[in-house]
UniProtKB/TrEMBL annotation:
It comes from the Bacteria. It comes from Ancylobacter koreensis. Gene3D superfamilies: Aldolase class I. Belongs to the phosphosulfolactate synthase family. This is Phosphosulfolactate synthase. Pfam families: ComA (PF02679).
Amino acid sequence: MPNKNDPPPPAEADPFAFSFVRMAPRPARPRESGLTIVADRGMGIGRATDLIESAGDHIDFFKFGMGTYRLMRPEFVRRKVALLKDAGISVFFAGDITEAAFMQCVSRRFYAEVKAFGADAVEVSSAQVAMSLDDKCRLIGMAGEAGLKVVAEAGQKGAEDWTKSVSYIARQIEAYQKAGAWKVLVQADGISEDVEKSRWDVILNIAARFDIKDLIFQAKDGAAQKWYIGTFGNGVNLDVDDHQVIELELARRGIRGRHIFGLVGSLENN
């Protein structure tokens, strides 16, 4: 993975069909911003192969979601990781089993195993267990020592109350970054999921304090994706479901979304 101080990768040459029709450019992979993270709920090799064939060019990270990998045979996990990495897609494991490992005092062994499976990163979260900020920061350091990038979760799954204090959210993010987190994932629960009205004010206050390139936003519905891209541009990092990759990339490229990136056409020029 590139260092954050390295110059951004050049825009890719257009390898796609109908290349004479202009669309918004995107940096080539690997990239540090404009990331599309796909959340996996246990898809098989066949579905993963289909996803790579149809949308792999537009996926930066594949997240083994929830605790799915705990129910998969080791040979299957290795095959799936190898398939993804051969396609240029980085891999990270979601935090649910991280939390179980923490409760059972086997965190170092867990991170070593994640690294041995060939993953690039791991999530540190507290969705299922109560965990102090200090404990989460220690886990970030522990995972880093194992050679893994860390995606640290801000917010609380299943709890809307966490959105009531932007100051505390900022404290979380600052602590994670100081501990060595590569990116901070901002939960959708309480923001755009399980709420009567989306709390975009919270996101704007977070974005006012931190570089959005260092953040990943969960956005599992089209309206949320449209808001993020319309507000922050196509360089925003989004965590989406596998069936949303193409539609999201169309929005990033200015195809779905009216003149978001200034590609205004005229019949007189056709």
